[in-house]
Amino acid sequence: MLRVAAVVFLTLCAAAAAPAQPPAGAMPLLTVARVDFDTYLVWRKVELVPHVVEKTVTLDHNGKVEMEKYAVTKYRHVESDASIKLKDIRARDAAGNEIPVEKLSQRLGLNGAPVLLSTGPVPLKYRWILKDDTIVIEVLEPKAQGAPRP
């Protein structure tokens, strides 16, 4: 029994020590986007930003009252705009048909429309979740530049 337990323990340790596979791409983001100046796709993003707050605590040590200060890290939500050039994206509708960049600003309108931002193509088997007016934006990989010429 002890041998079986040792083998199971070593197997679990080896599995935990094995490096995890990195994710294939960033997680898609469902948001509202608009086109600015016919050049940029702009959307709102929310990030958690840490900030340190100093707290004062009253402690009683054997009848002696002491005030101690502690630094506590808290997180707050910060909203900001993010943008990308229209030439660096590929827009498609929920059915997978490509939308020309010229018509993208008309489809999004002045106040924006729902879009799904992704770093790669969204598989067809997941597109059934999206409404017909949702636009899928694929961020294109930057082209590798050759070494500079001397």
Description of the molecule:
With 150 residues, the chain is of the alpha+beta class. The chain has a domain of 83 residues. The chain contains 2 helices and 7 strands. It has a 7-stranded mixed sheet. The longest helix is centred in the first third of the chain and has 16 residues. It is elongated, with a radius of gyration of 26 Å.
Q: What is the beta-strand fraction?
A: over 45%
Report the principal-axis shape: elongated
Q: Report how far the terminal alpha carbons are from each other.
A: 69 Å
Helix content estimate: 10-25%
Q: How many H/I helical runs?
A: 2
- Estimate the mean pLDDT confidence: 75
Number of strands: 7
Largest sheet: 7 strands, mixed
Q: What series of H and E elements makes up the topology?
A: HEEEEEHEE
Extract low-pLDDT stretches: 12-24
For the biggest β-sheet, the strand order reads: 3-2-1-6-7-4-5
The assigned structural class equals alpha+beta
Gyration radius (Cα, Å) is: 26 Å
